[in-house]
Amino acid sequence: MSLSKSEYNQSTYFYDEIMNSFKMDFSFYEDLIAILKPKSILELGCGMGRLFPIFMTEAKEITGIDLSDEMIAQGRKYYTDHKFDNTLIEFVNTDMCSFKTNKKYDLIVFALSVLKHLSTDRERLEAVQNAKEHLNKDGFIVIDHKAFLYASRSTDWIDAKDSLVVDWVPPSVALDGYQWKKSIEGQKDILQWRYNDAEKTHFEMKFTTYRYDIEQLIEHLGQLELSHERILTEWGCNGLSNQGKRFIGLASYRDNKYSLKQELLEKVSKRNERLWSDHDLYLEDNKS
Predict the structure, then answer these.
(1) Which of 2, 171, 172, 234 is deepest in the core (most CB within 10 A)?
(2) Where are the chain's structural domains?
(3) pTM above threshold 0.85
(4) CATH 3.40.50.150, domain 2-148+212-271, yes or no
(5) Could you list the mean pLDDT of each consecutive 10-residue stretch along the chain, which spans 288 residues?
């Protein structure tokens, strides 16, 4: 846990510059919020609050939990400076396993494989258990998860503009000069980013995550007596293709029989978006 905190504190600049611009999952959350209309939302591992503007279209109360005090500070400053008066926004600097409050939420969010930042099955189970304890009886936990980030194998340094990452960010964000590299070391799944100019590295960061197979996630949901519904396996209108390597779905109490799958898939298909996959963001194998 301390390793993740140290790495993320050091990567605040990178998150503000690049990661907060990743929008490949925005349409899913826009559709989900439009259908559920949750009045209270808890995001575990929220960073600087990248998804909060989407949440605010319906929610009157948003709580964000993150281990990085630097990212929490940046998020608090941004949302305080911009004075979003119609929604109560709270940032809490703690970990997702031990966070406690008397509040219950309509929607709880685990975005962008955030459970991979926990190194043991015990911690992952505790985090999902903690989410369940803060969930309203008719609420939902939304989970976006995949076992490996960016690629399922190690890579050398790759120019971001030559990989599918370029499709994840708006045109206004320049990826020229940015490179990423993937290293798999046992159960560690390490992602590095750097910025090069004229063969000189001006900026470099890494963060360490841990392999957490989807089958293990589903087993944990069962242990906690949560029902689950897998909506998509990739971002985009072809989300149920056989290529999908993600779990994008919802968990709830077993007596909650409301299914959102058909309504969500109808919204996704109407968008007719390009399929965004991060199963292997470098296409070298496809060029051979």
Answers:
(1) 234
(2) 2-148+212-271, 158-208
(3) yes
(4) yes
(5) 49 68 87 97 95 97 94 91 88 95 97 95 97 98 93 89 80 82 95 82 84 96 97 71 79 95 89 67 49
